[in-house]
Amino acid sequence: MSENIYDKVKTNPKFAELVQKRSRFAWKLAIVMLVVYYAFILVIAFSPHLFAIKIGEGVTTVGIPIGIGVILIAFVLTGIYTQRANGEFDDLTHQIKEELRGAK
């Protein structure tokens, strides 16, 4: 019986839409994060003096707030994904489940 349900889910056009939208969105966010992270690492590798510039009279350099920014971008991107997952993706999942319940 469960194989029958799996087959119905796999052939459901809304499931294909869900998988496509979720994958495309996740890849976009992953690419943004990778670009930010690797840009940060490349600056450290090839122009470390840029991040060594001091801010004010203290010991804080430009690299500290930029590094914190990279971490914050990761949190923001996670929040964006969670927002969409709890909205659009959950709605599609609910629709698929309702269609399967109605097909029984």
From TrEMBL:
Signal peptide: none
Keywords: Membrane, Transmembrane, Transmembrane helix
Segments traversing the membrane: 25-46, 58-81
A cellular-component GO term for this protein: plasma membrane
Entries under Pfam families matching the protein: DUF485
Keyword Membrane: yes
InterPro entries to which the protein is assigned, alphabetical: DUF485, Inner_membrane_assoc
PANTHER family from the UniProt entry: INNER MEMBRANE PROTEIN YJCH (PTHR38598:SF1)
Protein name per UniProt: DUF485 domain-containing protein
Organism: Sulfurospirillum deleyianum (strain ATCC 51133 / DSM 6946 / 5175)
